[in-house]
Structure formats: C-alpha cells, structure tokens
Amino acid sequence: MATRNAQRKLLSICLRSKAQTKYQYNSSRNFSVTRSSLQSYSSPLPDSYYNEEQLQMQATIAKIIENDINPFVDEWETKEEFPAHQVFKKLGNAGLLGIDKSEEYGGLGLDFKYLAAVMEELGTIRCAGVPMAILVQMAMTCQALHRFGSDELKKEFLVPSISGDFVACVGVSEAGAGSDVANTQTRAVRKGDDLIINGQKMWITNSLQADWMCLLANTSDGNPYKNKSLICVPMNSKGITKQKIHKIGNNSSDTGIIFFEDVRVPAKNIIGEEGSGFFYQMLQFQEERMAGAVGVLKGIDAALSETIDYTRQRKAFGKSILDNQYVYFRLCELASENESLRALTYKAIDMFVDGQEVTRLASMAKLKAGRLAREVGDTCLQFWGGMGYTREAAISRFFRDARLLSIGGGADEIMLEIIAKLMNISPPPPPKKK
Amino acid sequence: MAMRALVGCKRVIDYAVKVRVKPDKTGVVIDGVKHSMNPFDEIAVEEAVRMKEKKLVSEIVAVSCGPAQCQETLRTAMAMGADKAIHVEIPAKEFELVQPIHIAKILAKLATDVKADVVILGKQAIDDDCNQTAQMTAAFLDWPQAVFAAKIEKDGDSLAVTREIDGGTETIKVNVPAVISADLRLNEPRYATLPNIMKAKKKPMEKKTAKDLGVDLTPRIQVISVEDPPVREAGQKVDDVDQLITKLKGLGRI
Ligand SMILES: Cc1cc2nc3c(=O)[nH]c(=O)nc-3n(C[C@H](O)[C@H](O)[C@H](O)COP(=O)(O)OP(=O)(O)OC[C@H]3O[C@@H](n4cnc5c(N)ncnc54)[C@H](O)[C@@H]3O)c2cc1C
C-alpha cells in the first residue's frame, strides 16, 4: 500500500498547485482522490445497467472531470464563468460531444443510452453549472440540426460543435415566453435571400461565450404552432448584444439575455422546413427531460454521501449526528427515492432507445428528479446545520444549483400538465375566442 | 526498427478505493469494489503506444492474467492503442495466491510465443507492491532489463533508457530484445477516447490458461493473516521548543 499512499500525496500536491495557478489547459492527468469510489453512498445499478463500452466511456469522462474540471470548479463558480471553449475542446477531442450524431459529421452514431451513460457521469462534477453547459451542447442544441438540417448547415455548425471548436446555445425562451413557447415574439423576416431578426431571448445558457445559437423565431404570422422556424445564427453577427444574468445557483454557467436588432443571416440558415420550428423543438424535449433526470442522479448520490460523512464525524450531545435515528432513516429514505428515480429513468431510456413512446415516463422522471433534488438539498443542508449554510460547504451549492431542475427544461407544473393529459384527467380546453 | 511489444496490464483495486480487510483476515474485500488497470501498467501501455506512433514499435500485444473481468482491463488497453490482447484466465480464488514468479513465467512464455522484441511492464502493481515481475521475466528470458524507466529512446539498433535511481537518474543502453519496467514519470497516459473505445471492441482477444502455457501455478506461499496497518495515535501540538522538551522529559523520552 506504500505506493498507493505516496501517489495520493503526490497527486494532492499536484492538484493543489494546479488549482492555485491560473487555469491552464494541458493533457496531463494525475492519480486523483476525488473519485466516486471513495463515496459513502454509491448506487449498485449503473454497473449492471450499462454495457462494457458505456462503462468505459464513463471512465473516460470521469478522468477528464477529475483532472480538468473538478479542481477548477470553485474558481469558476466564484468568477461566474468557466472557459467553455477549452473544456469543450477537451471533451470534443475525447469524442464526447457527438455520441449520438452520425459519423459523417464527426460523431459516433451511437444510440441515446451511450449518451445517457456519459450524462449520468457528468453528475460527478462538483457543481451543476458546468454539466448543464455540457448537456446543452451535447443534447439540446444540435438535435434538430442533426436530423433536419442541410448538409451545408451541418458542415458549418454541427461539425465544429461536435469537435468542440464551437460553443453552441439554444434560444427558445423569452421574457414573455418561457413555459408558453408558442407565445414567442422574436421575428425573422425574409428580405431577399436573407432573414432580418429582431427581438430578444432570455435565460440562454452558454450564450455569452457561444459561437452560434439555434434560434426559435417566428418566420410568418398566423398559427403559433406553424409559424416558427429554427435558425442557425452566428453569435458574432452584427446587431447582437448580450447581457449577463446573475443567478442564485449554477454560477459557473453563463446565462444571458440576447438582443437582436436587425440581425441579418442567410435564409438558408433555417433548419429543415420553414414553419416546422415549434414541432422540431418539441421533438427534442423527451431527450432533454431524460437528460435532466439522468444528469442529477450522481449529484444526489454525492450529496447523500457527503452528508453521511459529515454527520458521522460531527458530534452533538455526546454522539454523532448520524447516530440519531431520524437522521439515518431520512438518509436511507432519500437513497431509496433516488434508486427509484434511477430505475424509472433507466426504463424510460431503454424504451426510448427501443423506439417506444416515452412522453409519460420521461415527464414523470423529470418531475421526480426536480422534486427529489430539492428535497435532498434541503434535508441534507439541514443536517449540516450552520456549516450547511456557508458557501464553503458543497451541500449549499447543491441546494442552490438543484433548485433549477424544477424550473428549467419545462417546469414541474408543465410536466404535471403533460402527465395529466396522458392520464386523461386534464380539464377541457377553454372555449375558443370568436 | 519496428519491434513487437508485449505489455502487461494487471487488474487491481482502483487507486482511489479505500481498501478494507475482510473480517476473517484472509485477504482484502474485492467483491463489489471498483477495479481498474494498475496505474503503472497504464504508463507502460501509453509508452508502447507512443513508441508505435514514433514507428519504433509495429504491434502492441496487451496481456492480463487473472479472472474473467481482466478482459475489461484489456479492452481499456486496446482503447488506448494496443492492437490485440491475450487474456490468461486464472480463476479469482486461485489468483489470490499467484505471485510474481508465476506471472513472470507466463510472460516469458508469451514473449517467446508472440516473438516480442520488447516487454514493457509497470514497475510494480499498487495492490501487492512486489516490484519483481519485470526483473524475473528478464531472468527467465535471459534478456537484458531496464527497470524504473523514466525515458525510452532509440539509440541505433538498441534502446537508451533513462532510469530512476536513488538520488537521480542514469541512462543505460540496452540491446533488444529487452524487458523494461515503467516508472511514474515515464509519461502521462492518455484517456481512451470514445471512438477508440468503440474500435477496441473489434480488436482480437485471445484466451489462454496457464496450463496451455505450461506454467504450474501451485502456490508457494500460504496466507496466515491479513491485517490493517496500525492506526496512528493522536498527536499533540506544542507552542515552542521549550515546551516540547518539557513534555518529552515528562514522558520520560529524554
Ligand atoms: C439557469 C437557467 C438556464 C436556462 N437555459 C435556457 C436555455 O439555454 N435556453 C432556453 O431557451 N431557455 C433556458 N431557460 C429558460 C427555462 O426553460 C424557463 O425558465 C422555463 O421554461 C420556465 O419559463 P419562465 O421562466 O418564463 O417561467 P414562467 O413561464 O413565467 O412560469 C413561472 C411559473 O409558473 C408556473 N406555471 C407556468 N405555467 C403553468 C401552468 N400551465 N400550470 C401551472 N403552473 C404553471 C410554474 O410554477 C412556473 O415555474 C433557462 C432558465 C434558467 C433559469
């Protein structure tokens, strides 16, 4: 064991010096100790669910996380920004950004379960902002472009997004159109061979550093479900201005308001059919919901683990906090909940890969994930006491970050509306206005 | 120079796992514990791949001895760049008492069978810390050895190997065929990229047993008891040297 300990020491020295110097990108790796295997709680399910290649992919992303992400998370959270181009390039080089995209454009042509394996491992990043940024790039910006875009558009935007040279963002939400996507106001009006875009997008992840946006805008008037298009917009186009939004969590992820003033892009930048934007956007929601659910599982495992460790060593009234039945029962209960969520999410992924309809299960998994992450963050923070209320404690970050899951990617109530429809218990729609 | 390299890949308990002794003290807990490739073997694989990239090596054969799960370790080696793999299956129970001398015999036989020009192994495995296999393999083959390598370069038809020694490094020239063991600073192994993980699936993996290779695995040791290292006793902080001396005197140490 002598070597094992020597290596740990060597490595902790490396990590410390690395974290102190300015963030520099290199291909080095060290033996590290921040791995999930040291955790007091880890799930037995992933090892039997994923196949050998999927587990190996998890090992690859785990190494990148250990060496090139986790040591810098605190710094990025404080700065409210992370170097997206550098991190994405690293991921792109390892082949992680095009798992489900076709080989023709630099992807791997694998099914969604391979993507899910990697997304689950992203949950070991010690904040939610960076994994969210990666998930947006991997699973939310390029799906429509990949499926419906022209070869020319794919070469221009998809290829560099898969290789990690481009940072991508998806611009759907607006100040007045969040849950209600149909109410989008941003307009793209045809002028000759071009589109002239006016309006604004709000809450856009990655937007401050992005090279391009997959923009949802109205390309005509009339039926709000048939007048929208998805458009590839280079973010250095004239007429685009940006404003940062400061949030209570997910601090390292840059969230922006993007203003469009007579922004001109070629009309051929429309993805697929003009007027199909709303439909295309809806198509990728299942994947987005499953991504949200699968992405939080390991974050919850870690929150439980760290709470077990903390409460075990913290003493009050002559015994460990953990030794109170209320405390350890609650932790067991939350672990059980997380395994149920995991099983549900895994099932939804399998059915989706199998080509079955998963709207109900995916919406349920997303709903449960948001709810459970809040419950875990709140309960665990409570068990940390005053320490949990400090910025230093990882649990306070989880508490703040996890809160987003019930809002973004379709709020809990939107999930409930969808589930209600599929259960045939939603009230009849209001009578149509004359 | 285009050599064939044989590289050892031992499957060990992952370096980040806290190793626990079994309650009956017959060994350490391995069931349900994360395993991965011995980090020094990763360095060995990486070096072979780099030598292949420099056209010093034409083919890399990865070998792992142990239970069926060693095939996962071999897939990792192939995802990093090894061309093919040989799994010498030794059932878990039997593997517990297998020692460097057994593995060295297996490796020597395989090196001869595959006509290897260079055998690259990790300098030691982080589970038993033996640091014997490379040396013994060289002895069985009667090849020169260059252990604790920190740098491997071509030198005419030979190799110049810089070795880590007490107080610094030394550079030696070895004729091939040779056995080399990799030290920590030889290189920093790459990640297996996703495309290479998928490609590794299609690379050939041969299965053999020790018996096929004519190696007798009869144990030469018997484990009497495995114990946790003693726990360090709590220390005390003192403000200055005077206080330290007073304390030590009080304890009767000086
Ligand atoms: C950090 C962050 C990152 C984001 N990233 C992106 C991005 O990259 N791209 C993008 O396009 N968008 C992004 N969003 C926007 C996100 O998708 C929206 O915030 C979300 O859809 C909710 O919309 P809203 O904020 O306008 O809330 P509103 O639509 O105003 O809803 C407010 C609340 O009202 C309730 N509510 C709404 N509708 C109903 C209903 N039918 N029944 C019952 N209750 C209801 C819900 O509780 C909801 O939370 C991001 C948001 C955040 C906070």
Automatic annotation (TrEMBL), chain A:
Ranges of residues in domain Acyl-CoA dehydrogenase/oxidase C-terminal: 275-421
TM regions (residue ranges): none
Annotated SUPFAM superfamilies: Acyl-CoA dehydrogenase C-terminal domain-like (SSF47203), Acyl-CoA dehydrogenase NM domain-like (SSF56645)
Reported cofactor(s): FAD
InterPro entries (alphabetical): Acyl-CoA_dehydrogenase, Acyl-CoA_DH_CS, Acyl-CoA_Oxase/DH_mid-dom, Acyl-CoA_Oxase/DH_mid-dom_sf, AcylCo_DH-like_C, AcylCo_DH/oxidase_C, AcylCoA_DH/ox_N, AcylCoA_DH/ox_N_sf
Keywords: FAD, Flavoprotein, Oxidoreductase
A UniProt-annotated Pfam family: Acyl-CoA_dh_N
Family: Belongs to the acyl-CoA dehydrogenase family.
Protein name listed in UniProt: Acyl-CoA dehydrogenase 6
From TrEMBL, chain B:
Domain named Electron transfer flavoprotein alpha/beta-subunit N-terminal: residues: 25-217
Keyword tags: Electron transport, Mitochondrion, Transport
InterPro entries: ET-Flavoprotein_bsu_CS, ETF_a/b_N, ETF_b, ETF_beta_N, Rossmann-like_a/b/a_fold
Location in or out of the cell: Mitochondrion matrix
Keyword Lyase carried by entry: no
Assigned protein family: Belongs to the ETF beta-subunit/FixA family.
Subunit structure: Heterodimer composed of ETFA and ETFB. Identified in a complex that contains ETFA, ETFB and ETFRF1. Interacts with ACADM. Heterodimer of an alpha and a beta subunit.
Function: Heterodimeric electron transfer flavoprotein that accepts electrons from several mitochondrial dehydrogenases, including acyl-CoA dehydrogenases, glutaryl-CoA and sarcosine dehydrogenase. It transfers the electrons to the main mitochondrial respiratory chain via ETF-ubiquinone oxidoreductase. Required for normal mitochondrial fatty acid oxidation and normal amino acid metabolism. ETFB binds an AMP molecule that probably has a purely structural role.
PANTHER family the record matches: ELECTRON TRANSFER FLAVOPROTEIN BETA-SUBUNIT (PTHR21294), ELECTRON TRANSFER FLAVOPROTEIN SUBUNIT BETA (PTHR21294:SF8)
Protein name from the UniProt record: Electron transfer flavoprotein subunit beta
